[in-house]
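ok trying this again, last paste got cut off
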Amino acid sequence: MTQHHSILGALALGYAPMIDRQRMVAATRLTVFPLRPDARLDATELLTAVAEVWPAGGAPVVLHVLSESLLQDLLAASPSANLMLEVPAFMAAEHAPALQALKKSGHILLLKGRPLHALAPELQACFKYLVLDLDDERSNPASVGSLPKLLSSVRGAAELEDGFARGAAAVLGWPMQDSFEAPAATAKSEIQADLQVIVQLMSQVDQGEDIDKMEATLKRDPSLAFKLLRYMNSAAFGLSVEVTSFRHAIMLLGMARLKRWLALLLTTASKDHSMRPIMYGALRRGLLMEELSKSMDDREMRDEMFICGLFSLLDQMLKQPFARLLQSIPVPERVRQALVEQTGPYQPYLELVRAIEAESVFDYRHAAEQLMLGAEEINHCVLRALAKAAQLE
């Protein structure tokens, strides 16, 4: 994403995964908050910005717009077919012709909240899902016609499981806890066996061991070697030549850049299907932290910001608190400060990323002010990070 979009200065953006019952991420939900309730926003410009991340015919995205006037304009703007629109129940009857036209042209529409009065059958048929906050569904589990439910505002693994137990087709939210502290009696003492090769490679790179030893370690897991080369040859990485071997990668990248991609492997190589949404979150955190660091002159700090965001969910993946986990995984001191002590220069950026994930405009404003960053700069970073993540997956 390279174009400038002035509308992004008038918005706060948040994002979350849509997680299906197989724990796959089926779509991304992009939440759009106007920073000024009275602002008149350009629907076409918003659609152009979104299309740069999710082009027509590409991965699906749910657009959750918290501005009635902007949403009205979007309904009339013929968005691309892979863009699913959430429509509040109170707006449905008033905009029935536009909704029926969108349905006829193949668009997927989501009904947000329960209507006060039953919708006409032909209007209800415009919607594929009913979106309810988990708390609302708990207090009133009655269905709306035959519409399958998407439960939103899910926070933590317990709420994710509760949502599926209540019959949700998918949930919108994050399965990780705010923090992870493993009970002493059940905490694992070692890194998972299928990730040991990556951790050993990271240690070898950190200690400056020779390439032959590192190649011998990588050969213990050919699937990891393949994945590492696939990442390095992806469009998001931007190399002008194809990387053909681990030795070639080191020659092209150097040890510092190699550390970054081993870190990426560590956070995306878990074979536990329930970790897919957390891996989705970790990749986007790393890329967003990197985008937010682009104004820094120090290349080392930019690489560290990537690793800090990427590793910020490792405790959830590996079921160990950071204080124990980082004893076996080498990380820079400033990354350790942010993850273990919640201090240091990277911590405020992590708070901003968490506010964006939480779709909280209040926390977004506060974190942005702390970093003296404007909404336009932040939102361009968000969309670039989401676009890069889509290229890597």
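PB: full thing came through this time. The chain is about 50% helix and 15% strand.
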